[in-house]
Amino acid sequence: MAPEENPGTELLLQSFERRFLAARALRSFPWQSLEAKLRDSSDSELLQDILQKPSGDSVTLSESTAIISHGTTGLVTWDAALYLAEWAIENPAAFTHRTVLELGSGAGLTGLAICKMCRPRAYIFSDCHSRVLEQLRGNVLLNGLSLEAEITANLDSPRVTVAQLDWDVATVHQLSAFQPDVVIAADVLYCPEAIVSLVGVLRRLAACREHQRAPEVYVAFTVRNPETCQLFTTELGRAGIRWEVEPRHDQKLFPYEEHLEMAMLNLTL
User: Fold this and answer.
1) Between the CA of residue 219 and those of 24, 71, 85, 102, 195, what are the distances in Å?
2) How far is Cα 119 from Cα 154, in angstroms, rounded to an integer?
């Protein structure tokens, strides 16, 4: 049956692509023979596009099925996390052999992708919600990574830490312990209060490395409200933080929704 005859088919296949093919290594799958059979089929355009997506190491997530659960939105994966993960995979040198601090890690997809594909020296997942932190620890272990405290840590893997970090109360002394070379965050610009808190913690991160090179900071966000984005740039200016928009990268792994506009900021503290 052609896709136009059954709109539900296309939605089902897009969901399959996003939740399965983009997250699992399928090197042993008979791609060439299947693609040859599909190429001449009148209803194979969507499947053919899926087959041309790259596959790599796997990332497995346990996450909530509800957008809001346990009083937080951090238990699900948002599109900005997908965007940042894909950007990281295309730009591994930004993370290789470096210490990465992620602010507001949520379900952990971005960090897990970086740990598996970009070879960081150390990776610090952080969040302030106890249920999110519990899920993060579980997802780290689910993907074969060990937490730093475990003596069985794989020497070929990065040192992984899951840290409780409240942006409003984190001190320069606490942040100094992380010593990140790179700081990342995805989809954390959802309200004015979060923006002010984020810029505040970025200022303290810069201050705790006074005699060293400031960390590179990458923030990915969905443009839902132009006023919210304007507030972010205004707060950055007040804090003396310079920024520039990163060029958009090509979509290869994840089918972002058309009504969502993505942007990447490269902050220089």
Assistant:
1) 26, 24, 11, 10, 12
2) 13
Across 119-137, b (16+ Cβ under 10 Å) vs e yields bbebbbbbbbbeebbebbe
182 contacts 103 by C-beta, under 8 angstroms: no
What was the pLDDT predicted at 31?
56
Q: What does the block give as tokens for 178?
A: 């992380």
Residues in the chain with pLDDT values less than 50: 1-5, 16-28, 54, 66-67, 69-71, 73-74, 151-153, 258-259
Nearest-5° angle of CA 196, CA 200, CA 205? Answer: 150
Helix (H) or strand (E) holding 262: strand 262-268
Residue 184 · residue 266 · CB < 8 Å: no
Strands 99-103 and 262-268: unpaired
How is residue 99 annotated by DSSP?
E
> ∠ at Cα 116 (21, 13), nearest 5°?
10
Pair 235, 220: CB distance under 8 Å = no
Tell me which residue of 191, 187, 182, 248 sits closest to 219, measured CA to CA. Answer: 187
- How many C-alpha atoms does 91 have within 13 Å on its Cβ side? 15
Residue among 164, 158, 132 at smallest CA distance from 146: 158
- Residue 15 identity: S
Query: Quick one: pLDDT at residue 2?
Result: 42
Look up residue 202 and give its amino acid.
L
User: Which letter does DSSP use for residue 36 in this model?
Assistant: H
Main-chain dihedrals φ then ψ at residue 44, nearest 5 degrees: -110, 10
Q: Which residue has the tokens 């020296």?
A: 121
Whole-angstrom distance, CA of residue 160 vs CA of residue 153 = 9
Distance (Å, rounded) from C-alpha 115 to C-alpha 139? Answer: 12
